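Section 3.1: Structural characterization of target chains.
Under the original work plan, the team committed to producing a structural model for every single-chain target entering the pipeline before any wet-lab resources were allocated. The record below documents one such target. The sequence was received from the expression subgroup and is listed exactly as submitted; it comprises 453 residues.
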Amino acid sequence: MKKKTVYICRECGYVSQTKLGRCPDCESWSSFDVKTQLPELTQEKKRGLSGIGEIKPLSGITPDDSIRCKTGMNELDRVLGGGVVKGSLILIGGDPGIGKSTLLLQISKSLTANRKKVLYVSGEESLSQIKLRATRLGVSSDSVYVMSETDLDTVLNTASSGYDFVIIDSIQTMYKRDIQSVPGSISQVREATTALMSLAKEKGVSVFVVGHVTKDGAIAGPKVLEHMVDTVLYFEGDGDYAYRILRSVKNRFGSTNEIAMFEMRDKGLVEITNPSELFVQKREIPVPGTVVTCSVNGSRALLAEVQSLVVTSSYNYPKSSVSGLDFNRISMITAVLQKRLGLDISNKDIYVSLTGGLKITEPACDLAVALAIYSNYKSVPMPKNTVAFGEVGLSGEVRSVTYTEKRISEAARIGYNNIIVASGSVDKNLAENLGVNIIEVANILQALEFVAQ
């Protein structure tokens, strides 16, 4: 077979026909010292992954209802858009020890209940180590096959022999022998992902790939890695809490920004089906500086508790500390309170936090943050069973947010009957149907008047 010599940048994987001193893509110097032999594409390969090149009108294609397979975890199925799509490539990223391997080992058992054959490939653990973890999680099945291997060609040959699902843990440990760079390098990661994508599309095998993250929280490797896969899931969680959030940031077969919630226990990850009750503490006596808000992630409305503490600063320059929220938006809200309401907080230390280790960035929390800061500053508690959500503008106006009715319905379900929203953002009949009191406000001042009652 005729072969072709190319040069690959070890930093970004850029391919050049000649050796260059500087990479035109990542601008790295002297990075084209990696040389490889690539065979020319045959006519069959040029036709596409299927090798058929069949063309059909979109209206003439019949949907296949069996294309999705349930994982056995309702939370994970919802994030994936209803289950795992046959022949899809799914990337799961997260910090070390967050629960990626645990989750995949658990769903391996569930998948075999549907008469599916699973291959679990680990490049980081031996077979005995995998067995120890599987025993702790209660995973034992004759249809789950484990393999400790880092050679990509060996893995591909094995995975092509009748498996329905393949789990690679992790992509950074896989290496291709004809690429002269170390495992985990950009070139190796990209080539391994390309080969696994071909396996998924040609053989109809669903492939899960575990990806390590960098210090910045991004998946290690070239950014093209996330573009190549069908679905990208991020595992989030604070080491001080047992709760884990699995967030969808890309999904070709479902909605993005969907979340699933789990609790890490001795026997593995357990689904949390009603997280609103978990992250909100209902108090008989309201506490100043505490306000409940409602956030929407994908199709899920989630109640969360915003807490604020305003104290006189003992430093020359007052400081602010924010946990779980966007620091820049908190600074903006603080400035709005000072300018529009005349709150004298320029010499105060301000602390704002979301309870339970949650992280919310949407502007719907603005109104709750403003009310929490005001409530603690004035030592005036919020009225009992009150939820507030809305975006705050620089002039102090309160703007409506998306999914208002869904947020109100979730608050009513948990038992909150006072709901502060932006004016004109909700149907008047909704309050009567749900049995709640909806307080519509046009600006922060009107919202604060309700608090001060």
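The CA atoms of residues 102 and 317 lie 46 Å apart.
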